[in-house]
Amino acid sequence: MTNTILKSITLALAATTTAATAGDMNTYSVEGETYESYVAFADNPRGTIMILPTWNGLSDFEMDRAQMLADMGFNAFAADLYPTGQRPTTMEAKQAGLASLLGDQERMHAILQSAIAAARQGGDEPLLVMGYSMGALTAMELAWSGLGNDLGVDGYIIFSGRVSDPRGRMMPEDVAPFFLAIGESDQRIPLSSLPSFIDEVEMAGGAVTAHTLPNAGHLFSAFGFPNYNAEADADSWETLTEFLEEAVGT
Question: CATH number, domain at 207?
Fold first, then answer.
């Protein structure tokens, strides 16, 4: 089974590396500043998935994921979280970028509102938000703050993202369902907070599909990153596919 999964995702990645040019580079605006985005369209879309990137900013990784989702039948909108020309290139700059984003809640909400509006393009199909690491923290802010409810987010896909709220808020009622994929060897994401998170979401009327991956570290699913784990990536993507079938259908 594992070999079959690995073969499938290897073929998918090879295809998206070639097919990623089918998408379009675009921009969206936040309070007068320009942010880059990458859009991949499905032939017969079942919904839209907005991808929020790691602290590296929008990269080939998120673009390839967008094309994979388009091949699965979803319009995919990968939104940078840094203004055009401001992606950090050093560890210190990435840490500063993360601190700046998380430290200015009003600004973060403005980015999310603008990105979601651009991702929807006026349509009313289901919309899910997917995030990786910093992007996952940003997606979680949608849920914790209630902004996701206000904007009609239909689901959250969290890869290598912290599930405890640093602001100590309660999950709002009727929160959309979550898919979580966390490496069991992730030193940045404590799995000890997972049971209480699941309980809290269920008390708020939501549901959690939690998938933990043995021997997988932080950003295990990000090909090209140091902790990339092909087996865990394939495993989590297969489980995500099942979650999407339940959340959106065919």
Answer: 3.40.50.1820
Q: Is 21 inside any structural domain?
A: no
Question: Which 3 state secondary structure label does DSSP give 112?
Answer: helix
> 239: Cβ–Cβ under 8 A, 6 or more apart, which residues?
179, 181, 209, 211
User: What's the domain count of the chain?
Assistant: 1
pLDDT in tens, 50-96: 999 999 999 999 999 999 999 999 999 999 999 999 999 999 999 99
Instruction: Please check whether residue 234 lies inside any domain of the structure.
Output: yes
* 154, part of any domain: yes
Could you tell me the residue range of the domain that residue 79 belongs to? 2-9+35-248
The DSSP call for residue 21 is G
And the tokens for 109? 């909400």
The 10s digit of each residue's pLDDT in 105-147 is 999 999 999 999 999 987 778 999 999 999 999 999 999 999 9
Which SS3 state, helix, strand or coil, does residue 8 take? Answer: helix
Neighbours of 68 (CB within 10 A): 20
Q: Are strands 74-83 and 47-52 parallel, antiparallel or unpaired?
A: parallel
**pLDDT above 90 (res 37):** yes
CB-based contacts of 206, cutoff 8 Å, min separation 6: 171, 174, 175, 176, 177, 178
DSSP letter string, 131-177: EETHHHHHHHHHHHHSHHHHHT--EEEEES---S-TT-PPPPTTPPP
Residue 96 and residue 25 in contact, taking contact as beta carbons nearer than 8 Å? no
